[in-house]
Amino acid sequence: MSSKIVRKLIEVTKLITSKAPNNSEIYPAQFVAGKNNGVGFAGETILSWWEIEGADRVLDEISDMLKQEHTFLASNHRTTIIKSIRQTFQEVCLDPQIFDRRMITRASGASLFESRLSSNPQEMGKYLYREIICSLKNKSQKKLVAYTAPRITGTSFSVASDGIHFIKKDDDKIWIELRALGYIVDELNPKEDHLKLPRLPSLLMDKDYQCFCVVETVGTDEECKIQANIKLRRFFSVILANSLPCMRTKVGEIPSSACVILPHQNQRMSPIRGSLGIFYPFYGDELQLSVEKIGLVKTWYRKRNSLEKADRDRLDKGAHFLNQAINLSGVDAFIYYFICLDALFGKSRAVYESIESRLPCLSEPNQWIEKFPKLYNLRNELIHGGSRLIEEWKDYNSYHRHFKTEPIQDIEKLAFACLSQAPDILKQYPVN
């Protein structure tokens, strides 16, 4: 137990008061005090208190210290840790072994520090430390995040390095394997698209889909959703980059964003339904993942994992921004496709040269060597306010007449080609 963290926790208790500070515009935190026993909150006591100036700074310092002290918190965002610290304070503030309940509930104006029962502040600080770590450990557990993939079909497969499973809805084999790993998947009935719990009747409402994407994560619910978001954006980008020879047509149907968080067997929680984000547009035609395409996806990940960390980061960020682009349109999509190229091959103060120098490494490089200078010119026009629309670009008509294509189609094809071939290119020509 870190004595520095204990001292910081004691400092926070001096900055929490049950009465509004004079001339203060700080809004109070209002909450139900006590721990949730699974049915309701013990006591149902509603309290308000104020965090005076300096509390945010100290909580931020505690968050950094906890991440350094405990490896299981390494992937947790600071806001998640700070939220857990605040919740723990609210849960234990009426503990009769530690605090004077009357001083806290009567809004006497005393600080939480002044409301302690022990004359030794260290006892209170160590107690708070233990409770916070216990709370964070309970929340930072293994979980599955399940997300559906409308308009994609194919056989089930897994990317073990990312903990991602692409599961055909009627494939029991992988669900049995996940159950053997300790995940509680029985509440989910994927064949009939519903959760067995009455308050969670449907996963996707009226969406039609044939496959699930399931991601293994570790952390709080919010941290698990963030991890799943990052991994799924990369996953869908890699699938599309290795599957699409040409631009596909989006339809007016709203894409899916629903997810379900499924717990591990060592947790006391039920599945949670929520919104994860949009990773795959609702295309007019269905994408069939053949054995060959699945092989290309697995090979991409295998090559990615063999790269140095700096190059893996480039691939991950390029895939992320490519996914942002495919879910946008017009100018926004065009700019994000270029952010993807910059993330993959760009070099500070030499973005154009760094990307252009790697175009000869692509398959069918000649068309991209010819088109790229013009596409980059359009990129500059849009970023610097020279054009509001792609069609407003002064060279739009000449580009269309010469190449018989649209700039947005070409930049998408180029981004897909670069992402699919980037592991080999970065292996041979890393960006220093």
Write the layout of secondary structure elements.
Blueprint: H1 3-13, E1 16-17, E2 29-33, E3 45-51, H2 55-69, H3 78-92, H4 101-105, H5 121-139, E4 141-148, E5 152-154, E6 157-159, E7 164-168, H6 172-180, E8 188-189, E9 194-195, E10 211-219, H7 221-241, E11 258-263, E12 272-275, E13 287-289, H8 291-305, H9 309-326, H10 330-345, H11 351-356, H12 365-383, H13 396-403, H14 407-428
Helix pairs in contact: 1-2, 1-5, 2-3, 3-5, 7-9, 7-14, 9-10, 9-14, 10-12, 10-14
Structure description:
This protein has 432 residues and is α+β, with helices and mostly antiparallel strands. It has three domains: 3-139, no CATH class; 141-291, no CATH class; 308-428, no CATH class. The protein contains 14 helices and 13 strands. It has helices spanning 3-13, 55-69, 78-92, 101-105, 121-139, 172-180, 221-241, 291-305, 309-326, 330-345, 351-356, 365-383, 396-403, 407-428, and strands at 16-17, 29-33, 45-51, 141-148, 152-154, 157-159, 164-168, 188-189, 194-195, 211-219, 258-263, 272-275, 287-289. The strands form four sheets. It has a six-stranded antiparallel beta sheet with strand order 6-7-10-4-11-12. The protein has a three-stranded antiparallel beta sheet with strand order 1-3-2, with helices on one face. It has a two-stranded parallel ribbon with strand order 5-13. A hairpin with a 4-residue loop joins β8 and β9 (194-195). α7 (221-241) crosses α14. The protein is elongated. The relative contact order is 0.09. The model is unreliable at 197-206 (pLDDT under 50).
